[in-house]
Design a protein that fits this description.
This protein is mostly beta strands. It is built from 1 helix and 20 strands. The protein has a 20-stranded mixed beta sheet that branches. It is elongated, with a radius of gyration of 21 Å.
């Protein structure tokens, strides 16, 4: 808990723990609008929503193998669940909805849980091993990291960073700046209006829909790259693959519709119109 301002304040409990039956209140915190916070839910389900209040509200059910912990100050809060017994090796579970200030700086970690976050406008950093990550209607800075969990991003603007392993990454309606990389997970980008860099080792990459006037750089080692654009909005294309073919019925394009650079060492590059393959 070194991130809290002082060991004494880290131990202050600014919460009221109530009975959990029926998915009711778990805890509440008075905070600043831009509170820095950490949430840890190893397994189960965690839904995070935002509101225009200077407070955090936790509701739901904590599993029988878990107990709630939390504390902090108005500017720094840490909360989550931990094993009820040190001899219990199973992951502590919870099914929670957490309301946080819209401008929060929030760090979230799950191990094997479904994570759904919407509406953040400050800084969001989320990490998952398994389970699933979904982020929507977010602005500001968003950083997502997954080992095996699939990642879904919808309507995100600002600065987006996604790092994945085996899980697929699916992004739709992204604007601003973006960086997406996976090891073997497939990457799908639709209506991607960001200046972006996409890298995979073995995962396929699909870019569909217009990209506005942005610049997108796609690189894979063995994955296939599919570029599917509306006939009237084909960007300027720079395509190169060392061992795989370049296929399709679209060439050239115009910088007025953006620029796409695609490189693959062994994978094919396929260019098509209107999503037809």
């Amino acid at each position: 808990m070194n991130w809290l301002p002082g060991a004494r304040s880290a131990l202050l409990a600014l919460l009221a723990t109530l009975p959990l039956g029926g998915g009711g209140p778990v805890a509440g915190f008075r905070t600043t609008r831009d509170v820095t916070m950490r949430i840890y839910v190893p397994a189960g389900k965690l839904v995070v929503r935002t509101w225009d209040r200077d407070s955090i509200d936790v509701r739901g059910v904590t599993g029988p193998n878990a107990r709630f912990f939390g504390g902090g100050t108005r500017t720094h809060v840490k909360l989550g669940v931990e094993a009820a017994s040190p001899r219990d090796s199973t992951l502590p579970t919870a099914d929670w909805q957490v309301m946080i200030p819209r401008a929060s700086r929030v760090w979230i970690k799950v191990i094997d849980a479904v994570l759904d976050v919407r509406g953040t406008e400050g800084e969001l950093e989320a990490y998952a091993v398994r389970g699933r990550i979904t982020v929507a209607n977010a602005r500001g800075t968003t950083s997502l990291e997954s080992i095996d969990a699939p990642v879904t991003v919808r309507d995100v603007g600002g600065d987006l960073r996604v790092r994945g392993g085996k899980g697929a990454v699916d992004c739709d309606s992204v604007s601003g700046m973006a960086s997406v990389s996976t090891i073997s997970g497939a990457v799908t980008l639709a209506r991607f209006l960001a200046d972006a860099r996409v890298e995979t080792i073995g995962g396929d990459v699909t870019l569909r829909g217009g990209i506005g006037r942005g610049t997108t750089d796609v690189q894979t080692h063995g994955g296939r790259i599919v570029l599917a654009f509306p006939a009237a909005a084909v960007p300027q294309l720079d395509l190169q693959t060392r061992a795989g073919p370049v296929q399709g019925d679209v060439r050239g394009g115009s910088a007025a519709h953006g620029r796409v650079t695609a490189r693959s060492f062994k994978g094919a590059i396929v260019v098509t119109r209107d999503g037809k393959r």
